[in-house]
Amino acid sequence: MNVSSESRSPAVQTLRWTGDRLELIDQRALPSRFQYLNCSNAAEVAKAVRDMVVRGAPAIGCAAAFGIALEALNCAALPRSEFDSRLAEAFEVLAGSRPTAVNLFWALSRMKRMSAAVAARSTAEAAQALVGEAQRIYGEDIEINRAIGHAGAALVPDGACIMTHCNAGALATAGHGTALGVIRSARDEGKQVTVIANETRPFLQGARLTAWELVQERIPVTLITDSMAGHMMQRGMVDLVIVGADRIAANGDVANKIGTYPVAVLAARHRIPFYVAAPLSTIDLAVPEGSAIPIEERGADEVTGYGGIRWAPVGVEVANPAFDVTPAELVTAIITERGVTPAPDSAKMRALFES
Amino acid sequence: MNVSSESRSPAVQTLRWTGDRLELIDQRALPSRFQYLNCSNAAEVAKAVRDMVVRGAPAIGCAAAFGIALEALNCAALPRSEFDSRLAEAFEVLAGSRPTAVNLFWALSRMKRMSAAVAARSTAEAAQALVGEAQRIYGEDIEINRAIGHAGAALVPDGACIMTHCNAGALATAGHGTALGVIRSARDEGKQVTVIANETRPFLQGARLTAWELVQERIPVTLITDSMAGHMMQRGMVDLVIVGADRIAANGDVANKIGTYPVAVLAARHRIPFYVAAPLSTIDLAVPEGSAIPIEERGADEVTGYGGIRWAPVGVEVANPAFDVTPAELVTAIITERGVTPAPDSAKMRALFES
């Protein structure tokens, strides 16, 4: 991979559409193994989302759209009523895969609208229309990420050391990334940037995915445990924080990977700007505030160990909320494809959709 | 193990003195294996401290004292000059084992004073005197922990859910523990308590040691990753925080295991009391404030993986500060064997040594 090719097409192809299947980089295996996992129907895509083969709000949205497209292709020869009922099932299984990231529901709702729009056409034509819509969602996501990156790069001073949490990179999107998209764009504009990647327990998206993406692109990256973020800020080593989002409430509260909220609280204490980079499809105007966002609780085994080894004693209880909510008051600005929205609030969130 | 025996003698014997060797629970192997590692001289004790076979500020102090005692016994038949130079070497190697916890230096300085006091006696008598002093340091530590536990228990409401970070338990001391000593004492007084244990990356003292100690004693414990502390507080699930300390500066700033500072910042935001439990030997009046406390930087391999598996990509830089500093302003009270000192400051820290 080199820088100039990166600026033309996504260097990391998180999702690949072959015409009759969806190929996903198996993010559970990174960085030790780079391999694709194939999905041929909606249930396989839903399982890949649930098992975190693919993760990251925009990537989940794209995957779900292709899941519907696959199911439609598989059913294209069936009678309309069966086609419709199989599609309805596919929508349900995909919607049940993960609860927090709203892009999943946003993408499914776009696919549902397309499905309704072609309800009078043949099932074969409907299937092609749904494939087309999934491809549009995918293509738009890359463009949106580049727009986010361009808008956000203006906030990154030359020489900045940027902390990020989890992975909001190419691997979390169709390409380029949201938070890492800003960092990539800043670098592409000629700025020297260095990154501090929080490892992001329990699933280690920072250690495994963000570190991997940045090493690939030769952007200097220092890995720390999540517990070290405060110390790094206290020692003056962090100039700004950029993270992605899984769902942004109507008032600007941000649900993102567990551990984001503590980083925001620490950034506020140290007067370090805290930016959230996300597409408009992550903003959920139907949810008035962060406390109403459903927080996924995942299995205990993610916390009691990692990768087949267990380090916690038998008999311990475990909590494993996969996300937390950062109140809007701690967010310096939200960066979307429409630009930079400082000090987000309800009026500004609404206005983003009106412009 | 049962509660009544616990109240008489330390149920977990972190250090065992046999008369001619020091046996240490190998804390690297817990909770999957419970085994003792034997040390026969000062260099072996220093290595055990450096490798974190034994850890926790008070336990390190006790181990270092026994390290000197062992070396004195081994050299008891040598001429005085050789005895003295071997002992001087032992002091040096032990002092170099870990830099942050001050109890190590405090214990070595007590042993040095004893050594000076018996300089005119035979080397055999000197060795016996040093063994006696190490045993006194050990015995006093248990008594001190019980006094800390008793004083702190008054701060724990019945039914409280207590968050702790790292392990400041029996395993971190000669017995009973400091932070966990308070929890044990509260339970022994008949209070219902539950504990949230932060896993404490990178070395996982919370997941491995604190969870193990509490499961042994049937105190309900919920394990979380460090990144979940903010969410738990936000959801109103934490009534108070108690942690130990590795060194407390003259102004009340507290150096403790990395990740303590973020917990203190979060507790302050949520108006949750943040208590530090530590013996007077942890207070270092020679260090005016926290920023002057040396922070140990440990190896990259602790951060890039765990237990022989590596999950970070090749090429990533790593930071691994083992401790951070919580400013006194965030500490609700320090609990020592002299009682509870709310809102610690320089005058109060000095006064503790004058009473």
SSE blueprint and pairings:
The structure is a homodimer of 355-residue chains.
Chain A lengths: L2 H4 L8 E3 L4 E4 L10 E4 L2 H9 L6 H18 L5 H16 L7 H15 L5 H31 L7 E5 L13 H10 L5 E5 L6 H12 L4 E4 L4 H6 L5 E4 L3 E3 L4 E4 L2 H10 L4 E4 L5 E2 L16 H4 E2 L2 E2 L6 E2 L4 E4 L6 E4 L2 E4 L3 H9 L1
Parallel strand pairs in A: 4-5, 4-7, 5-6, 7-10, 8-11, 10-16
Antiparallel strand pairs in A: 1-2, 2-3, 8-9, 9-15, 12-13, 16-17
Helix pairs in contact in A: 2-3, 2-4, 3-4, 3-5, 3-6, 5-6, 6-7
Describe this structure in words.
Helix content of chain A is 41%, strand content 17%. By secondary structure, chain A is α/β, with parallel strands linked by helices. The first copy, chain A, has 2 domains: 5-146, translation initiation factor eif-2b, domain 1 (Four Helix Bundle (Hemerythrin (Met), subunit A), Up-down Bundle), CATH 1.20.120; 155-352, Translation initiation factor eif-2b, domain 2 (Rossmann fold, 3-Layer(aba) Sandwich), CATH 3.40.50.10470. In chain A, strands 6-5-4-7-10-16-17 form a 7-stranded mixed sheet. Chain A has a 4-stranded mixed sheet with strand order 11-8-9-15, covered by helices on one side. In chain A, strands 1-2-3 form a 3-stranded antiparallel sheet, with helices on one face. The longest helix of chain A is centred in the middle third of the chain and has 31 residues, at 123-153. Chain A is globular. The relative contact order of chain A is 0.12. Mean pLDDT of chain A is 96; it is low at 1-9.
